[in-house]
Specification:
Mean pLDDT: 88
Radius of gyration: 22 Å
Strand content: under 5%
Strand order of the largest sheet: 1-2-3
Distance between the termini: 6 Å
Low-confidence stretches: 365-386
Shape: globular
Number of domains: 1
Structural class: mainly alpha
Order of helices and strands: HHHEEEHHHHHHHHHH
Length: 386
């Protein structure tokens, strides 16, 4: 007979890594935003207190999702995708939408700013985990429905416009589909096709093409399109090995989006190469533990859920770090747990809570060996183990 896996202890290494990164994030938001906050509100702690509030709300949400058995998310996966699509549509067709710096990414509801694309990322992972585990994908036609849903979300996110988040969704969703039995040739064919589509879209949007120019020739466009890339390089360079000291980067005041998208450059400036490496180790631990939890989960839904959440975090982290270090063009992607942003932080904390819950049901290598031996013994006696 198949034994149910009793919930055990959560993955404490994952928990400690998440708490460590969150603490670093709060410190860096305070350091990076203090000058801007003072100029805007005469209160150096204004944005820090807002981020701290979201961190507390996120911690409560993470604790709640930690207590909820992960299999429950099967029941609401479809509803979650539907809600996220409705929210994304409200961005285009309602007066609740808020436009900042040319992008319409936020909804103002009852005094709260909500970023639907962050909700959509988690909702899509839940949906794909359920669909791909419930209905095995062995041929291309089996994947049409999940591809359609993913495509709808990607189009709505791109129209905000938000190409960066669209790419993150595409890569994470594609990675989840790669875990199915689909022929690898489909992915090898899709990669250049999607790449060509992406290039076409970028080439025909002036602001996106300017970002490419600023990425390829940052010093030639140092005062325009390459402003962010150049100042990020200056920040890293001025930090040296051990940095110039916490809070001192604000005196330079030249790094745009320093408490959101480019906060990693502030870490490099204030804590130097040593500080950036410490943060990288934190993310490496967090992501590796996520994949270990996925591998050790006893059922396909849990494996796909943990894999999808971890991959979404990994891709978002990689894109942000590559942008800040000049390996990719500038795009509005935050650094999970560290960058300022309520919606992003809240959803990330919920994802951490789900991962911790999945980790309670995982099987260690030793347990898998015992289970495999028990199954072999039962089968050798002609008995069923299902």
């Amino acid at each position: 007979m198949a034994q149910k896996t009793k919930p055990g202890k959560p993955d404490l290494i994952l928990l400690f890594a998440a708490v460590f990164l969150l603490a670093i994030g709060l410190i860096m938001v305070l350091s990076a935003s203090s000058l801007f906050s003072f100029k805007q509100t005469d209160n150096s702690f204004y944005l820090f207190f807002k981020q701290l509030r979201w961190a507390l709300i996120g911690s409560i949400a993470a604790f709640v999702t930690f207590l909820v058995p992960y299999k429950y998310w099967k029941k609401v996966s479809g509803l979650g995708v539907l809600i996220s699509i409705v929210l994304l549509l409200l961005l285009r067709y309602s007066d609740l939408a808020v436009t900042e710096k040319g992008s319409t990414r936020w909804l103002e509801i009852m005094g709260l700013s909500i970023q639907p694309s962050e909700i959509a990322k988690l909702a899509l992972v839940l949906f794909l985990a359920y669909i791909l585990s419930r209905y095995p994908v062995k041929k291309l036609t089996d994947a049409l429905f999940p591809l359609f849903v993913m495509g709808v979300i990607m189009v709505l996110v791109y129209k905000q416009p938000d190409l960066g988040t669209t790419v993150v969704i595409a890569l994470a969703g594609g990675a989840m589909l790669l875990m199915t039995e689909l022929n690898i040739l489909y992915f090898l064919t899709a990669a250049p096709v999607l790449g060509a589509i992406c290039f076409y879209l970028i080439r025909h949007e002036a602001y996106q093409w300017n970002r490419i120019l600023g990425w390829l020739y940052p010093w030639e466009y140092a005062t325009t399109y390459g402003w962010q890339s150049v100042n990020a390089q200056i920040a890293f360079g001025s930090g040296g090995l051990f940095g110039i000291g916490i809070g001192r980067s604000a005196a330079y005041g030249s790094l745009p989006e320093n408490y959101t998208d480019t906060i990693y450059a502030v870490i490099g400036q204030e804590f130097g190469f040593f500080g950036t490496c410490i943060v990288l180790v934190g993310f490496a631990v967090l992501i590796s533990r996520g994949y270990i939890i996925s591998r050790q989960c006893p059922d396909s839904f849990g494996r796909l859920l943990a894999f999808g959440i971890t991959t979404m975090l990994a891709v978002q982290t990689a894109v942000n770090l590559c942008v800040v270090t000049g390996l990719l063009p500038v795009t509005g992607i935050t650094l999970p747990l560290i960058s300022y942003g309520g919606s992003s932080l809240l959803i990330t904390m919920v994802e951490i809570g789900i991962l911790l819950n999945v980790s309670r049901y995982r099987k260690t290598t030793a347990e898998n060996r015992i289970t495999s031996y028990s199954e072999y013994k039962f089968k050798s006696r002609g008995m069923s183990v299902s």
